Amino acid sequence: MLLLAAIVPPIPQPPSYHHFADSRGCFGIPNCFNVISNLPFLFVGVAGLVFLLSSRGSLAAKAFTLPSERWPFVILFLSVALVCFGSAYYHLVPDNDRLVWDRLPIAIGIMALLAATLNDRIGPEAGTRLLPVLIAIGAGTVLNWYWSEQRGAGNLNFYVVVQFYSLLVIVLLGVFFRSRYTRGGDIYAALGLYGLGKVAEFADRPIYALGHAISGHSVKHLLAACAIYWVLRMLRKREPLQGTMEEAASRSSGLP
Fold first, then answer.
1. For residues 162 and 139, what is the distance between their CA atoms, to the nearest angstrom?
2. What's residue 7's pLDDT?
3. 20 lies in a domain?
4. In angstroms, rounded to a whole number, what is the distance separating the alpha carbons of residues 248 and 125?
5. Nearest 5°: CA angle at 200, between 198 and 205?
6. pLDDT (average), residues 109-121
7. Residue 21 within a domain
8. Cβ of 14: how many Cβ atoms within 10 Å?
9. For 178, which DSSP code?
10. Is residue 192 domain-resident?
């Protein structure tokens, strides 16, 4: 995956990326709708953290067979909450210097979701053990891109490849490995919503041209927040499948 990014000719960040269709201001906020459409990230991120960390969280306890399985989701929902601030900060005055703060929590959140999926599909500790490495890789791709832009030789390759292939790996894990919990298919709905959001992002201007009510980029923010809400919904509703609790008990007791 990283080798592919290394051999493909460097792709710089096009300056046109920062020129969004909807630049209207409101309430004294420039690019208002692209800024305030990030608020759902804060709401769903905080809701996820409350669900995971609440001392009264009986539903959260039922969603995991091992306490360590919560950590990738804690990082995911924390990253989502931070996306609200990073993306809003970027959209106030869009440029590469601000874009790095938008992309950092996104990259870390995707890596956390990959770790959570490894826990679910491979083993209850597989993703948690890899979580620090995956976070470092995700953040490293963003910092590498920003460093390359500062040198005047922008290179998006590692960021794009790692993000795309991480989501592809999540899909493939879902296809080829059985979930240890009910509601395993919900991950496809979440990824589908995120995919629709990316389509809306590419259709920023055509969507805005339909009635000048909302742009594709703002729609992307809303759909991506819905995708994370679907992950939270999955956690609230899921239960361990038969045999999963026995597996966890065996692991914790050290039995083969």
1. 10
2. 63
3. no
4. 10
5. 130
6. 97
7. no
8. 10
9. -
10. yes
pLDDT number for residue 245: 54
- DSSP result, the chain: -HHHHHHSPP----GGGG--S----BTTBTTHHHHHTTHHHHHHHHHHHHHHH-TT-HHHHHT-SSGGGHHHHHHHHHHHHHHHHHHHHHHHS-SHHHHHHHHHHHHHHHHHHHHHHHHHHT-TTHHHHHHHHHHHHHHHHHHHHHHHHHTT----HHHHHHHHHHHHHHHHHHHHS--SBTTTTHHHHHHHHHHHHHHHHHTHHHHHHTTSS--HHHHHHHHHHHHHHHHHHHHHH--BPTTHHHHHHHHHHT--
Specify the pLDDT at position 222.
Answer: 98
pLDDT at 253: 47
Residue 5 confidence (pLDDT) above 80: no
As given in the structure block, the two tokens for residue 187 are: 């991950």
Q: Is residue 122 part of a domain?
A: yes
Q: Tell me the pTM.
A: 0.91
Query: At 41, which helix (H) or strand (E)?
Result: helix 39-53
The predicted-structure confidence for 37-64, as pLDDT tens digits, reads as follows: 999 999 999 999 999 988 555 667 788 9
Is 176 a residue whose pLDDT tops 90?
yes
CATH number of the domain where residue 162 is located: 1.20.1070
Gap between the Cα atoms of 97 and 80, Å rounded: 20
Give the chain's domain count: 1
Bridge partner residues of 240 (DSSP): 181
Domain extent, residue 78, equals: 43-240
Apex CA 163: angle with CA 143 and CA 197, to 5°?
115
